[in-house]
Specification:
single chain
Length: about 375
């Protein structure tokens, strides 16, 4: 078996287990009303315990359980809210004293919940004119990136931190700055396509085994074993499937942990009645670590990037250099030690692996 290649059967078994998990259905019923409160005073309600499902009341309304207080009987015998008369006393359990809450509820599907649209950046596509040898004759972008976002722990991610560093999964390489700009980004998409295929097949009524086979075929077909640590990718995929993270979260997780993304900034991506319940981070992700480093150190040298920089966290500006801009860069002013040190470490590891293979081969040849 080739080094680094995971047998299709292993991937199929992994996806079969995931399909069985999916068959159990969602963890809970759909929430009808939500409320959110900044309990710790940090400016948002994205932390655990700061959002809650509202409770239906006997009066036909909804009550937020956050900071809810039991109503007291007044001198007239009527219930009154100790938080203030502006808050209504409502009965959640028949026969028990009513409760009141200073926090409002809103329908999940209503205008009370707002989401910042996710930037769907396909990156640079090779759709220009080419010559007979396949060389681009149109507008060339060198070391182009793709705008992506990941979400930190919050309501939309089931309080999972989808931006957490999970280590280096995508293997780096110098790559061709002109012809293979999207190679490593495509690798990240390929992992997601495998689990998506399994999930789609399972939802369509196929058995867990059939769904797993569909996923394994898509997974292996979209992955170059020399470009990715497949065993890590499978573990990574499982972790993401069991969380509230989506495709962009996963792509950023793979590329950021591999040193291929530039962090642009954080922003609020979901609000309930104006209160932030989910924060996200905007990134520019590149095909290689070298591309990210040259972009970070080359942009400050060019006037064309002075006004816009890296864009905004909601809409990162990730375009590549034009040939004229690239020729104008002064590489003597760039610190590429981060990249060189990794090349040296990788060379040492390759030497050790090569020596081990030769020793193992010799021992096998002389063994009786």
């Amino acid at each position: 078996m080739m080094r680094g290649v995971v047998p299709p059967r292993l991937v199929a078994l992994t996806l079969a287990g995931l399909a069985a998990f999916w068959s159990a259905g969602p963890a809970g019923a759909q929430v009808e009303q939500l409320c959110a409160v900044d309990l710790n005073g940090n400016g948002d309600a994205a932390d655990t315990g700061e959002t809650a499902s509202c409770t239906a009341t006997q009066e036909g309304n909804w009550l937020c359980p956050l900071q809810a207080t039991r109503c007291t009987v007044g001198e007239t015998g009527d219930y009154a809210c100790p938080l203030g008369n502006q808050y209504a006393c409502q009965t959640t359990v028949e026969g028990e004293a009513p409760l009141c809450s200073p926090n409002a509820c809103t329908a999940v599907e209503g205008g009370g919940v707002t989401d910042t649209p996710v930037t769907d950046d396909p990156g640079v596509t090779p759709d220009g004119a080419v010559d007979e040898a396949g060389n681009c004759l149109d507008h060339i972008q060198i070391f182009s990136g793709r705008a992506l976002r990941c979400r930190t722990a919050g309501l939309k991610t089931a309080f999972s931190n989808c931006c957490r560093d999970r280590g280096k999964i995508v293997k780096d390489g110098t790559g061709s700055s002109l012809t293979s700009l999207s190679t490593k980004i495509t690798v990240a998409k390929g992992v997601f396509s495998g689990m998506s295929a399994a999930f789609s097949a399972f939802k369509a009524g196929q058995t867990a085994g059939q769904a797993a086979s569909a996923g394994a075929k898509a997974f292996i077909g979209g992955i170059d074993p020399t470009s990715i640590a497949i065993s890590l990718a499978i573990n990574f995929m499982i972790e993401f499937l069991l969380s509230g993270c989506d495709q962009q979260d996963m792509e950023v997780g793979m590329l950021e942990g591999s040193g291929m993304c530039h962090w642009v900034g954080g922003y609020c991506s979901s609000k309930i009645l104006g209160i932030c319940v989910q924060r996200s981070q905007g990134h520019c992700c590149f095909n290689t670590k070298l591309g990210r480093i040259i972009q970070e150190q080359g942009r400050p040298q060019l006037k064309s990037f002075n006004s816009i920089g890296w864009g905004s966290p909601e809409q990162p500006y990730c375009r590549g250099f034009t040939p004229e801009e690239f020729q104008a860069l002064d590489f003597s002013r760039m610190d590429l030690s981060e990249y060189y040190s990794e090349l040296e470490a990788r060379a040492q590891a390759d030497i050790q692996i090569n020596m081990k293979d030769k020793i193992d081969g010799y021992m096998q040849s002389v063994s009786p």
